[in-house]
Amino acid sequence: MNDFSTVIIGGGISGLTCAKYLNEKGYSFLLLEGSDALGGRVRTDNVDGFLLDRGFQILLTNYPEAKKILNYSNLDLRYFNSGAMIKTEKGFMKMENPFKNKMAYLTMAFSSVGTLSDKLKIRKFANELAEISEDEIFNMNATDTLSFLRSYGWSDKMINNFFKPFFGGVFLENELATSSNFFQFVFKQFFKGDAAIPAEGMQAIPEQIAEMLPKISIRKNARVKGFEGNQLFLDGGEVITADRIVVATDPKTSDELLGENTERAYNTTTCTYFSAEVSPLKGQKFIALNPNRKSVVHNVCVPSDISSHYGQGGKTLISVSTQGLEKLDERNLTNRIKRELFEWFGAQVNVWKHLKTYHIPESLVQYRAGDEVQQLKLSGNLYRCGDYLAYPSLNAAMKTGREVAQMIME
């Protein structure tokens, strides 16, 4: 039987962050990861030489928690252009972030995404949020995002052409029923910082945190079946004793370990990857959004335009996000995507090669107005962390991990 000060169950972002802060202050720990790699949902697969993140993911560089622990330079971040390309009947229309590109005010003023009043409201709203802290935002009275947008005065045209496709893609739900607090937080991150991906894929983020930790304190393929008191029972019969236990798993595994039966609703997504000879977005480094939320395709991104490492042998990697099509098999889904994107990009779509499809039914726990941060300390020696306990984001995973570490150190 092995004795440890703190045992962290789960090697996702929250568990790694907790371990990082404990290690920084000289506290001993053992981190147990049930799978063959660290990162949880933040994983990258190599398929035929292409780097496929498990679902379309980005890092928002203004995340307060990420700035505390990540070395952006060592991640070799590659940046998206700030804004989006909006699909229209006549092609694409750029909506650039005027805080990043001063000339964007001219293009925004003459674009048909929304009215001039809508564009001025974006500047006003961004200025209002600029100096408000994360805690202040989440302590504000909240409603659903759609009601908030309407009450702020944005037109239906602006909401339907920009806010719904853009933030619907962030929230993974089309009706913008997500809490307005979270909308305001995410809006601020996009305007104050950049959207980026590490050159070698999103898994570089958990791997960087893991590099800060002693290798002897991390075990992979170590699945915890359960625990009782201060004893943890692993597959294979091993028993570990810990002064403190931190459950840093996904919500379902956490419930199983804690003997809970919490009802949670999830937002789902499906991400399909293709390889191609050329980029359909012609190196624009924007995400292409579809305002028609009843369509198969919701957004298109070309990660290899952002970082050439995502491609292979000079070929292009294309990411297509869809929702509500989880029951389709890969062949039917791929055919439907290609038929729709033929109208976007023409005959080049016919020769795209399907690489892999990721159905992610439990991608994000739904976050509604009135939802509060759930308890992180469950008893004298039992803790939990994870973004599902706060709000769905990389920032919240890091924040809850840090807060649990601080509780332990106190």
From TrEMBL:
InterPro entries: Amino_oxidase, FAD/NAD-bd_sf. Signal peptide: none annotated. Residues 13-408 form the Amine oxidase domain. This is Amine oxidase.
